[in-house]
Amino acid sequence: RVLFRSVEHWAAQHREAIQGEPGSDLKHTTRLAITQTIEGMAGMTSSGFLVTSDLASLHPETPATASSAEDKRPRYALVFEDASRDAAPLSAHLEAAGMKITLARSRRQLCDVINIGVRADLIILRVGSREVDALRALERLGRHRDLRRIPVILMTDEPRRTEVAKSILLGCGAWLAEPFTASAVAAAISSALEIGRAHV
């Protein structure tokens, strides 16, 4: 919630710069999208876009319980977690939420999995890794003919307002802020799968 108050304050300070001048349709469209994105961020806490351990209690329904009645097939997640970090807790939470995992620990591994034809219902990327620029990867995935349909979750220690705003324009499905908990991970998965990939 503190993040969104900060974003709203930032939006108010930068609204004039975002307004745009007539003459450039592309600039006007981009600025309009940014304005709408920022104005919509205040409601994302309650919608589950940004899921932290304290907010997860507001989303008790997990993907397993939400989808079991309508779809029994297993869900697959492609996860890029930096090699310097322990991937076991996140993997355990994903498995508890009913996801089968393909884990990539380097840029090369991630590219190899994608190039051989990834089978994934969800892609989860670590923000701030030296190996993979998550926002750039999100943008490239959005342009890929086959992968652009897959919802993407970004995870980080502390989401920054500029990163969150940019990620929304690029079609991000949800953010996960550490420390990860089972309920937070389940809520993020549920939100991302329900919303799907934006701008497809």
Notes on the protein architecture:
The structure is a single chain. Helix content is 47%, strand content 14%. With 200 residues, the chain is of the alpha/beta class. It has a six-stranded parallel beta sheet. The longest helix is centred in the N-terminal third of the chain and has 18 residues, at 2-19. The protein starts with a helix and ends in a 5-residue tail after the last helix.
Indicate the proportion of strand residues: 5-15%
- Rounded to the nearest angstrom, the distance between the terminal CA atoms is 28 Å
SSE-based structural type: alpha/beta
Order of helices and strands: HHHEHEHEHEHEHEH
Question: How large is the radius of gyration?
Answer: 17 Å
Number of helices: 9
Specify the helix fraction band: 40-55%
Strand order of the largest sheet: 1-6-5-4-2-3
Main beta-sheet strand count, sense and barrel state: 6 strands, parallel
Q: Could you give the count of β-strands?
A: 6
Quick one: overall form?
A: globular
Query: Unreliable segments (pLDDT under 50, ≥5 consecutive)?
Result: 1-5, 14-23, 32-43, 54-70
pLDDT averaged over residues: 75
Key terms:
200 residues, alpha/beta, six-stranded parallel beta sheet, 9 helices, 47% helix, 14% strand, globular
What topology does this entry show?
Layout: H1 2-19, H2 25-40, H3 44-47, E1 50-51, H4 63-67, E2 75-80, H5 88-96, E3 99-104, H6 107-115, E4 122-126, H7 134-143, E5 152-156, H8 161-169, E6 174-177, H9 182-195
Parallel strand pairs: 1-6, 2-3, 2-4, 4-5, 5-6
Helix pairs in contact: 1-2, 2-8, 5-9
